Amino acid sequence: MEFMPTKTIISSSYKENQHWFGINYNMNIYKGCCHGCIYCDSRSNCYQIIEFDRVRIKENSTDIIKKDLKSKRNKGVVGTGAMSDPYNPFEKKYKLTREALKLINENRFGISIATKSDLITRDIDILKKIQSHSPTLIKMTITTYDDELCKKIERNVCPTSDRLKAIKQLSDNGIYVGVLLIPVLPFINDNEENIRNIIKSAYEYGAKFVFSYGLGVTLRQNQREYYFEQLRRIFPNQELDKKYIETYGESYENRSRNYDHLLKVFKEECEKYNLLYNMKDIIYDYKRVYEKTQISWF
Ligand code: SF4
Question: How far is the CA of 271 from the centre of ligand 1 (A)?
Protein backbone atom coordinates (compact mmCIF):
# COMPACT_ATOMS: atom_id res chain seq x y z
CA MET A 1 0.00 0.00 0.00
CA GLU A 2 1.32 3.42 -0.90
CA PHE A 3 0.86 6.27 1.56
CA MET A 4 0.95 9.78 0.16
CA PRO A 5 1.55 13.01 2.05
CA THR A 6 -1.24 15.58 2.16
CA LYS A 7 -2.04 18.77 4.06
CA THR A 8 -5.83 18.77 4.04
CA ILE A 9 -8.49 16.11 3.65
CA ILE A 10 -11.73 17.93 4.40
CA SER A 11 -12.26 20.80 1.99
CA SER A 12 -15.15 23.21 1.63
CA SER A 13 -17.58 22.30 -1.07
CA TYR A 14 -18.21 24.75 -3.90
CA LYS A 15 -21.45 26.67 -3.33
CA GLU A 16 -23.09 25.01 -6.33
CA ASN A 17 -22.11 21.55 -5.01
CA GLN A 18 -24.24 22.20 -1.96
CA HIS A 19 -27.18 21.51 -4.22
CA TRP A 20 -25.72 18.02 -4.50
CA PHE A 21 -27.38 16.37 -1.50
CA GLY A 22 -26.81 19.47 0.62
CA ILE A 23 -23.14 18.71 1.19
CA ASN A 24 -20.99 21.45 2.77
CA TYR A 25 -17.58 19.73 2.84
CA ASN A 26 -15.81 17.06 0.80
CA MET A 27 -13.64 14.31 2.21
CA ASN A 28 -11.44 11.84 0.33
CA ILE A 29 -9.17 9.70 2.49
CA TYR A 30 -8.20 7.41 -0.37
CA LYS A 31 -6.93 8.34 -3.81
CA GLY A 32 -7.97 6.12 -6.70
CA CYS A 33 -10.50 3.29 -6.55
CA CYS A 34 -10.23 -0.41 -7.33
CA HIS A 35 -13.93 -1.23 -7.69
CA GLY A 36 -13.48 -1.38 -11.44
CA CYS A 37 -16.65 0.35 -12.67
CA ILE A 38 -16.19 0.49 -16.42
CA TYR A 39 -17.87 3.92 -16.74
CA CYS A 40 -16.14 5.70 -13.84
CA ASP A 41 -15.82 9.42 -14.57
CA SER A 42 -12.97 9.84 -12.09
CA ARG A 43 -10.67 8.20 -14.65
CA SER A 44 -10.92 11.30 -16.81
CA ASN A 45 -7.66 13.11 -17.50
CA CYS A 46 -9.02 16.34 -16.03
CA TYR A 47 -8.76 14.90 -12.50
CA GLN A 48 -5.11 13.93 -13.05
CA ILE A 49 -5.25 10.69 -11.06
CA ILE A 50 -2.52 8.50 -12.51
CA GLU A 51 -3.27 4.76 -12.37
CA PHE A 52 -6.75 5.37 -11.07
CA ASP A 53 -7.38 1.69 -10.22
CA ARG A 54 -4.53 1.68 -7.71
CA VAL A 55 -5.71 2.82 -4.27
CA ARG A 56 -3.39 5.06 -2.27
CA ILE A 57 -3.91 6.27 1.30
CA LYS A 58 -3.47 9.83 2.43
CA GLU A 59 -0.88 9.73 5.22
CA ASN A 60 -1.91 10.55 8.82
CA SER A 61 -5.50 10.95 7.69
CA THR A 62 -6.97 10.71 11.18
CA ASP A 63 -4.77 13.52 12.59
CA ILE A 64 -5.40 15.70 9.54
CA ILE A 65 -9.17 15.19 9.68
CA LYS A 66 -9.15 16.05 13.39
CA LYS A 67 -7.35 19.31 12.62
CA ASP A 68 -9.54 20.05 9.57
CA LEU A 69 -12.77 19.62 11.52
CA LYS A 70 -11.55 21.82 14.39
CA SER A 71 -10.64 24.58 11.94
CA LYS A 72 -14.15 24.83 10.40
CA ARG A 73 -16.12 27.78 11.69
CA ASN A 74 -19.46 26.28 10.68
CA LYS A 75 -20.81 22.83 11.23
CA GLY A 76 -22.09 21.12 8.11
CA VAL A 77 -22.50 17.88 6.22
CA VAL A 78 -19.27 16.15 5.17
CA GLY A 79 -19.68 14.31 1.87
CA THR A 80 -17.53 11.37 0.86
CA GLY A 81 -17.53 8.90 -2.03
CA ALA A 82 -17.28 11.23 -5.01
CA MET A 83 -13.82 10.45 -6.46
CA SER A 84 -13.15 7.18 -4.68
CA ASP A 85 -15.30 4.72 -2.72
CA PRO A 86 -14.63 5.15 1.04
CA TYR A 87 -15.42 1.44 1.49
CA ASN A 88 -12.83 -0.05 -0.85
CA PRO A 89 -11.39 -3.46 0.17
CA PHE A 90 -8.46 -1.83 2.03
CA GLU A 91 -10.85 -0.09 4.40
CA LYS A 92 -11.51 -3.48 6.01
CA LYS A 93 -7.95 -3.52 7.30
CA TYR A 94 -7.10 0.16 7.75
CA LYS A 95 -10.48 1.39 9.09
CA LEU A 96 -9.69 4.97 8.12
CA THR A 97 -13.25 5.80 7.06
CA ARG A 98 -14.43 4.39 10.38
CA GLU A 99 -11.95 6.59 12.28
CA ALA A 100 -13.08 9.62 10.26
CA LEU A 101 -16.72 8.88 11.15
CA LYS A 102 -15.80 8.77 14.83
CA LEU A 103 -14.26 12.23 14.54
CA ILE A 104 -17.24 13.54 12.59
CA ASN A 105 -19.44 12.29 15.42
CA GLU A 106 -17.26 13.77 18.16
CA ASN A 107 -17.21 17.15 16.43
CA ARG A 108 -20.94 17.03 15.70
CA PHE A 109 -20.84 17.30 11.92
CA GLY A 110 -23.29 15.57 9.57
CA ILE A 111 -22.33 12.93 7.00
CA SER A 112 -23.32 11.97 3.46
CA ILE A 113 -21.75 8.79 2.06
CA ALA A 114 -21.93 7.39 -1.47
CA THR A 115 -20.79 3.81 -1.82
CA LYS A 116 -21.33 0.53 -3.64
CA SER A 117 -20.01 -1.63 -0.84
CA ASP A 118 -21.87 -3.47 1.88
CA LEU A 119 -18.86 -2.91 4.15
CA ILE A 120 -20.66 0.26 5.22
CA THR A 121 -22.91 -1.84 7.49
CA ARG A 122 -19.86 -2.38 9.74
CA ASP A 123 -20.17 1.27 10.77
CA ILE A 124 -23.87 1.35 11.58
CA ASP A 125 -23.04 1.93 15.25
CA ILE A 126 -21.27 5.23 14.50
CA LEU A 127 -23.75 6.29 11.82
CA LYS A 128 -26.51 5.97 14.40
CA LYS A 129 -24.58 8.21 16.78
CA ILE A 130 -24.06 10.85 14.08
CA GLN A 131 -27.71 10.71 13.08
CA SER A 132 -28.76 11.29 16.68
CA HIS A 133 -27.45 14.87 16.43
CA SER A 134 -26.79 15.70 12.76
CA PRO A 135 -28.07 14.95 9.23
CA THR A 136 -26.95 11.56 7.95
CA LEU A 137 -27.53 10.36 4.41
CA ILE A 138 -26.39 7.13 2.79
CA LYS A 139 -26.51 6.74 -0.99
CA MET A 140 -26.08 3.20 -2.23
CA THR A 141 -25.36 3.18 -5.95
CA ILE A 142 -27.29 0.59 -7.94
CA THR A 143 -27.12 0.70 -11.72
CA THR A 144 -28.52 -2.69 -12.67
CA TYR A 145 -30.92 -5.12 -11.11
CA ASP A 146 -29.13 -8.03 -12.76
CA ASP A 147 -26.31 -9.42 -10.57
CA GLU A 148 -24.60 -11.04 -13.56
CA LEU A 149 -24.42 -7.74 -15.44
CA CYS A 150 -23.36 -6.00 -12.25
CA LYS A 151 -20.39 -8.36 -11.87
CA LYS A 152 -19.30 -7.38 -15.38
CA ILE A 153 -19.64 -3.61 -15.19
CA GLU A 154 -18.69 -3.11 -11.51
CA ARG A 155 -16.53 -6.16 -11.15
CA ASN A 156 -14.61 -5.63 -7.89
CA VAL A 157 -17.39 -4.72 -5.53
CA CYS A 158 -20.35 -6.63 -4.11
CA PRO A 159 -23.28 -7.22 -6.48
CA THR A 160 -26.66 -5.51 -6.39
CA SER A 161 -28.32 -8.19 -4.24
CA ASP A 162 -25.77 -7.58 -1.45
CA ARG A 163 -26.15 -3.81 -1.78
CA LEU A 164 -29.89 -4.22 -1.32
CA LYS A 165 -29.30 -6.28 1.81
CA ALA A 166 -27.04 -3.51 3.10
CA ILE A 167 -29.82 -0.98 2.45
CA LYS A 168 -32.17 -3.16 4.48
CA GLN A 169 -29.74 -3.39 7.37
CA LEU A 170 -29.16 0.37 7.38
CA SER A 171 -32.85 1.07 7.12
CA ASP A 172 -33.75 -1.43 9.86
CA ASN A 173 -31.34 0.49 12.08
CA GLY A 174 -33.10 3.75 11.33
CA ILE A 175 -30.38 5.18 9.07
CA TYR A 176 -31.60 7.46 6.26
CA VAL A 177 -30.67 5.57 3.10
CA GLY A 178 -31.56 5.69 -0.59
CA VAL A 179 -30.43 4.58 -4.02
CA LEU A 180 -28.31 6.45 -6.56
CA LEU A 181 -29.38 5.14 -9.94
CA ILE A 182 -26.42 6.60 -11.82
CA PRO A 183 -25.32 6.07 -14.52
CA VAL A 184 -27.81 4.56 -16.93
CA LEU A 185 -25.77 3.03 -19.76
CA PRO A 186 -27.31 3.28 -23.25
CA PHE A 187 -27.68 -0.13 -24.99
CA ILE A 188 -26.87 -1.89 -21.70
CA ASN A 189 -29.16 -1.09 -18.78
CA ASP A 190 -31.39 1.67 -20.19
CA ASN A 191 -34.55 -0.36 -20.22
CA GLU A 192 -37.87 -0.13 -18.48
CA GLU A 193 -37.53 -3.47 -16.71
CA ASN A 194 -34.28 -2.43 -15.06
CA ILE A 195 -35.65 0.91 -13.86
CA ARG A 196 -38.83 -0.69 -12.53
CA ASN A 197 -36.98 -3.50 -10.73
CA ILE A 198 -34.47 -1.17 -9.05
CA ILE A 199 -37.20 1.16 -7.78
CA LYS A 200 -39.40 -1.69 -6.56
CA SER A 201 -36.47 -3.28 -4.70
CA ALA A 202 -35.42 0.07 -3.25
CA TYR A 203 -38.88 0.32 -1.75
CA GLU A 204 -38.96 -3.29 -0.53
CA TYR A 205 -35.54 -2.99 1.13
CA GLY A 206 -36.37 0.23 2.98
CA ALA A 207 -34.84 3.03 0.88
CA LYS A 208 -36.31 6.50 1.30
CA PHE A 209 -35.40 7.79 -2.15
CA VAL A 210 -34.11 6.91 -5.60
CA PHE A 211 -32.13 9.60 -7.34
CA SER A 212 -31.16 9.55 -10.99
CA TYR A 213 -29.71 12.21 -13.22
CA GLY A 214 -29.83 12.54 -16.98
CA LEU A 215 -30.67 8.85 -17.54
CA GLY A 216 -27.43 8.42 -19.39
CA VAL A 217 -23.66 8.35 -18.97
CA THR A 218 -21.06 11.09 -19.33
CA LEU A 219 -17.96 10.29 -21.36
CA ARG A 220 -14.85 12.33 -21.97
CA GLN A 221 -11.23 12.01 -23.10
CA ASN A 222 -9.45 8.88 -21.96
CA GLN A 223 -12.46 7.74 -19.92
CA ARG A 224 -14.38 7.22 -23.18
CA GLU A 225 -11.55 5.13 -24.62
CA TYR A 226 -11.34 3.05 -21.47
CA TYR A 227 -15.11 2.51 -21.48
CA PHE A 228 -15.15 1.42 -25.14
CA GLU A 229 -12.24 -0.94 -24.51
CA GLN A 230 -14.23 -2.55 -21.66
CA LEU A 231 -17.36 -2.80 -23.83
CA ARG A 232 -15.36 -4.68 -26.46
CA ARG A 233 -14.01 -7.03 -23.78
CA ILE A 234 -17.30 -7.68 -21.95
CA PHE A 235 -19.67 -7.72 -24.91
CA PRO A 236 -17.59 -9.12 -27.79
CA ASN A 237 -19.20 -9.13 -31.23
CA GLN A 238 -21.89 -6.64 -30.19
CA GLU A 239 -20.05 -3.61 -31.52
CA LEU A 240 -21.40 -1.43 -28.73
CA ASP A 241 -18.55 1.06 -29.11
CA LYS A 242 -19.56 1.61 -32.73
CA LYS A 243 -23.18 2.10 -31.69
CA TYR A 244 -22.11 4.78 -29.21
CA ILE A 245 -20.06 6.59 -31.84
CA GLU A 246 -22.87 6.41 -34.40
CA THR A 247 -25.43 7.66 -31.88
CA TYR A 248 -23.50 10.21 -29.83
CA GLY A 249 -20.28 11.03 -31.68
CA GLU A 250 -17.93 12.54 -29.11
CA SER A 251 -20.54 14.20 -26.96
CA TYR A 252 -20.06 14.46 -23.22
CA GLU A 253 -23.64 13.59 -22.37
CA ASN A 254 -24.89 10.27 -23.71
CA ARG A 255 -28.56 10.07 -22.81
CA SER A 256 -30.64 6.98 -23.28
CA ARG A 257 -32.46 7.04 -26.60
CA ASN A 258 -35.56 6.17 -24.55
CA TYR A 259 -35.03 9.16 -22.28
CA ASP A 260 -38.59 10.57 -22.32
CA HIS A 261 -40.23 7.22 -21.77
CA LEU A 262 -37.78 6.11 -19.07
CA LEU A 263 -38.15 9.39 -17.22
CA LYS A 264 -41.91 8.95 -17.19
CA VAL A 265 -41.54 5.38 -15.91
CA PHE A 266 -38.98 6.51 -13.31
CA LYS A 267 -41.25 9.20 -11.87
CA GLU A 268 -44.37 7.03 -11.97
CA GLU A 269 -42.66 4.16 -10.16
CA CYS A 270 -41.14 6.40 -7.47
CA GLU A 271 -44.53 7.99 -6.86
CA LYS A 272 -46.21 4.61 -6.75
CA TYR A 273 -43.91 3.50 -3.93
CA ASN A 274 -43.83 6.88 -2.23
CA LEU A 275 -40.08 7.27 -2.78
CA LEU A 276 -38.55 10.74 -3.09
CA TYR A 277 -36.70 11.49 -6.33
CA ASN A 278 -36.18 15.27 -6.46
CA MET A 279 -32.91 16.56 -5.04
CA LYS A 280 -34.62 19.41 -3.18
CA ASP A 281 -37.09 17.06 -1.50
CA ILE A 282 -34.37 14.62 -0.49
CA ILE A 283 -32.24 17.38 1.07
CA TYR A 284 -35.22 18.79 2.90
CA ASP A 285 -36.31 15.38 4.16
CA TYR A 286 -33.03 14.14 5.61
CA LYS A 287 -32.26 17.48 7.27
CA ARG A 288 -35.67 18.53 8.46
CA VAL A 289 -35.61 17.01 11.93
CA TYR A 290 -32.52 19.08 12.73
CA GLU A 291 -34.05 22.34 11.53
CA LYS A 292 -35.17 23.52 14.95
CA THR A 293 -31.80 22.92 16.57
CA GLN A 294 -29.57 24.23 13.78
CA ILE A 295 -31.03 26.43 11.09
CA SER A 296 -27.67 26.37 9.25
CA TRP A 297 -28.34 22.80 8.06
CA PHE A 298 -30.33 24.44 5.27
S1 SF4 B 1 -16.95 2.90 -7.00
FE2 SF4 B 1 -17.14 4.98 -7.73
S3 SF4 B 1 -15.05 5.82 -7.69
FE4 SF4 B 1 -14.89 3.58 -7.55
S5 SF4 B 1 -14.57 2.91 -9.66
FE6 SF4 B 1 -16.79 2.81 -9.21
S7 SF4 B 1 -17.61 4.79 -9.92
FE8 SF4 B 1 -15.38 5.01 -9.73
Answer: 29
| C-alpha pair distances (Å), 59 with each of 29, 81, 83, 197, 283 | 9, 18, 17, 42, 33
Looking at ligand 1, which atom is closest to the CA of residue 115? 1
Q: How far is the CA of 52 from the centre of ligand 1 (A)?
A: 10
Whether the bond into 236 is cis, omega within 30 of 0: no
Per-residue model confidence (pLDDT) at position 17: 57
Which domains does the chain possess? 2-297 (3.20.20.70)
Q: What is the pLDDT of residues 137-156, one digit of tens each?
A: 999 999 999 999 999 999 99
pLDDT value of residue 293 = 66
Residues in contact with ligand 1 (CB, 6 Å cut-off) = 33, 35, 37, 40, 42, 84-85, 116
Distance of alpha carbon 226 from alpha carbon 242, whole angstroms: 14
With H, G, I as helix, E, B as strand and everything else as coil, classify residue 253. Answer: strand
Please tell me whether the overall predicted TM-score, pTM, comes out greater than 0.90 for this model: yes
The HSE-up count of residue 235 (CA atoms within 13 Å, CB side) is: 15
Name the burial class of residue 150, with classes exposed (0-12), middle (13-18) and buried (19+) by CB atoms within 10 angstroms of its CB. buried
Best residue among 85, 115, 144, 223 to mutate for probing ligand 1's pocket (most ligand atoms within 8 Å of CB) is 85
Most distant CA pair in the chain: distance in Å? 59
Residue 280 phi/psi, 5° resolution?
-60, -45
Interval between CA 245 and ligand 1 midpoint (Å): 24
